[in-house]
Amino acid sequence: MASSERTPTDVDRIAEWWVDTLVELNPGVGTYIGRTTFDEQLADYSPEGHERSIAATREALAALRGATPVDDVDRITVADLGSELELELERHDAGLHLRDLNVIASPAQDIREVFDLMPTDAPEEWDRVATRLAAVPGAIDGYIETLREGIARGTVPAVRQVREVAAQARRIAKPDGFFGTFAGSAKATGGADLPVSIMSRLGTGAEAAAASYGRLAEFLEAELHPVAGERDGVGREIYALQSRHFLGAVIDLDETYEWGIEELARMVAEQESIANEILPGASVHEAIAFLDGDPSRKLHGTDALQHWMQETSDRAVAELAGTQFDIPAEIRTLECMIAPTQEGGIYYTGPSDDFSRPGRMWWSVPEGVTEFDTWRELTTVYHEGVPGHHLQIGQAVVNRGQLNTWRRQLAGTSGHAEGWALYAERLMQGLGYLDDPADRLGMLDGQRMRAARVVLDIGVHLGKQRPDGQGVWTGEYAFEFLGQNVNMNAGFVRFEVNRYLGWPGQAPSYKVGQRIWEQLRDEVARREGASFDIREFHRNALSLGGVGLDTLRSALLG
């Protein structure tokens, strides 16, 4: 994927200016892509800070509209960045920032999570951490101010999200919560002690940061909770905005809901067939119980989980490189990590632009979970690693000769990224990596969950009729429905449904994105006939970097 240098154009310069502006407005973006210029700071989450961001968005959009594309690379940048900027202005007009509170991806999590990616090897790096810790109270206070403005305008999140995030904030605020533990474990490279002055600043900063999360919890419980919305569903107008945001595409929500019901039924039938292979005559639940009782498929403790993840990932990279996919040397390293939190969820963070920080797969293991089943999780490693997110996102970073920084590191949508990762899971099945029926059942367990999420998410937020014909979707029914379609414990179901209810449009983007990726592949194959080369299709598609799915469609099909 390495390429010759392309002469930067006016469009590239606008895109680069936009990245610089984003990093300045939200230093966490800089940390994410490996720029340390503003690593001591945090974003201004106050209403004034939001208005500065919106003013910059309008400026970038005006500049982009006035630029003349010189080639296809420019045309894709103009189309995709322009769409993203326009959508951000629509989201502002809808007041979404005033109700930006959910259990997984709101400022309540962003402020804490930025510390996970900060370099912490050298004393000077810990010194920057200490300065940023001291900035947490200001960031939290600005966020509270914005939520208060939402209260004044009658634009508030659902009470369920308020309650759950307050509980998260209470955990973080404890003396042995994230900040206290993080600062107390600080060491330099090789385990050397840090200077007393830095340790003192870390301790003071951690106490202040934890206390600010205590203030956030108090505000959520005392001020926001009494006025928060009772309904979990956000309605069609907001949902359509959020769907476009996560897909980078406009879809027919009603048709997609019906397709989701059909896709879920197909996943169930496929699971039932494989269950019979595993244990003749067995139901899906009986096959799962059989596999869960197999000690050869079980890992004990997070150390064993981390080692297994790393070995599985390394093997996939070594075997696929040069035979099925283009995997440049720069991205043949993927670090598999146990996340420092216990909230649940598995996620990927891309490499820094200079690859000094590699791509990483993170597993946030819930408290009390100590056993893991390899048959369930094999496909997860392929999803997060190779040929999933790591191949997709890492190759975009490698392609710096053709793509500006925005295209390499910040562009794209959940539908593009997560759709590719689900597409990659099916690719690995086709390549023989899931030939064991147990591993295929694990893959289908995930695919069934993603199909169920399409139905649940659209159903509850649009107030659709339930698939069982027993009335309209509610938040309470969402828990029951997901519990029927995943083989996970009650804590996982609770976290996942709370996530869907508070983050409308994101969960369906996985399966809908996979659907669009497969539709595009099939259409290109139809057009090219006997000359179709799937490896070339993947190369061409991934060389674009992250884009919205409408942009991907126009780039591949013309």
Kindly report how far apart the N and C termini lie.
Answer: 22 Å
- Give the proportion of residues in helices: 55-70%
Major β-sheet annotation = 3 strands, mixed
Number of domains: 2
- Poorly predicted ranges (pLDDT <50, ≥5 residues)? none
Mean pLDDT: 94
Q: Helix tally?
A: 23
Shape: globular
- The order of strands across the largest sheet is 2-4-3
**DSSP strand content:** under 5%
SSE topology string: HHHHHHHHHHHHEHEEEEHHHHHHHHHH
The structural class is mainly alpha
Instruction: Give the C-alpha Rg.
Output: 23 Å
What's the total count of β strands? 5
Task: Give structural attributes.
558 residues, mainly alpha, 2 domains, three-stranded mixed β-sheet, 63% helix, globular, DUF885 domain-containing protein, DUF885
Please give a structural write-up:
α1 crosses α2 and α4 runs antiparallel to α10. The protein has two domains: 10-232, no CATH class; 244-509, no CATH class. The model has no long low-confidence stretch (mean pLDDT 94). The radius of gyration is 23 Å and the shape is globular. It is mainly alpha-helical and 558 residues long. It has 23 helices and five strands. The chain has helices at residues 10-25, 27-33, 47-65, 72-93, 107-113, 123-153, 159-173, 178-184, 196-224, 236-247, 253-278, 284-292, 302-320, 374-384, 389-398, 405-410, 414-430, 437-462, 475-485, 490-502, 508-528, 534-542, 549-557, and strands at residues 298-300, 334-338, 346-349, 359-363, 371-373. Strands 2-4-3 form a three-stranded mixed sheet. Strands 1-5 form a two-stranded antiparallel ribbon. The two termini are 22 Å apart.
